[in-house]
Amino acid sequence: MKDWRRGVWVAMVTPWDPGASRPRGYALEALVERFVAAGVHGLYVLGTTGEGTLLSLEEREGFLEDVLSTARGRLPVIVHTGHDSTDAVVRLSLHAREAGAVAVAVAPPTRYRLDQQELFQHYAAVAEALGDFPLLLYDIPGTTCNPLGAWLLSRLRGSFANVVGAKVSRSDWEAWCGYLSLREDVTLFVGVDEMVLPLIAAGAQGLISSLANIFPELYVALYRTIEAGELVRARELQRLVWELADICHRGSPLAYVKSSLSLLGVEVGPPLPPLRDLGAEERETLRERLHEFRIRLEDLMVKGGGS
């Protein structure tokens, strides 16, 4: 397998049949096939977009196995194993290692505000249990209210060689300056779509995007142009990412991402409770804007040769 610590990763939605309490197999197959065709580098499953914390431990383990079976080695898989319980994180992470994922990403607990020592102890317990299996921090304080930071990554990296980097879903430059100072020794995945261009150019090695579910080819083209130093075209593609983020309300509510896929012919089902679906007016507005956007995207991709 090629080096997985780079490139475009899709923060994949979880196609779920709530009535049957199991994945929609046909939708999962359709998603994986379109991501393979688009040239993405890997799948990031059961994170915020993947509604992992809304599923039971058993459902999370089963879904990962289904993803790996569907991917059939064509795309590497990183699985989010965050949970409020350290023991549950260890269980999910050990399962991911045995199932065939290439790494786990762990967001901090959300129920309690943790101090620096508590955060270190939580991640240290997981890292130690995993041996040499790769562990990424998942820094997303907008949902966890427990910011991590370069200080924690550096401290853990100094103690555990398998702590290899972080997915950083933060837009504050001060935090990113700290992370980027470690870029020679760790892998950094950008988790904020609006900042892909500047952060990849500054040294982050990859991106993990929710909206890449909808138009993965846009993100692949953006990454490739940045890597090739084609700044003018990269700016055009980044502007399209900004526009897509606006159309989809930056993926909040999550129904904008799942409904977009439905409008494109991939029926992944509604969000899991307590998340809501879109109303009729919201869905119609989304349909119109997405149609117009798709035309502009296809035109730009043709003019640029798809990068």
Would you give an account of this structure?
Helices cover 49% and strands 13% of the residues. With 307 residues, the protein is an alpha/beta fold. Helix 1 packs across helix 2 (57-71) and helix 10 (231-247) runs antiparallel to helix 12. It has twelve helices and ten strands. Strand 5, helix 3 (86-99) and strand 6 (103-106) form a beta-alpha-beta unit. It has one domain (7-228): Alpha-Beta Barrel (TIM Barrel). The strands form two sheets. The chain has an eight-stranded parallel barrel with strand order 1-4-5-6-7-8-9-10, surrounded by seven helices. Strands 2-3 form a two-stranded antiparallel ribbon. The model has no long low-confidence stretch (mean pLDDT 95).
Summed up:
This protein is α/β, with parallel strands linked by helices and 307 residues long. It has 12 helices and 10 strands.
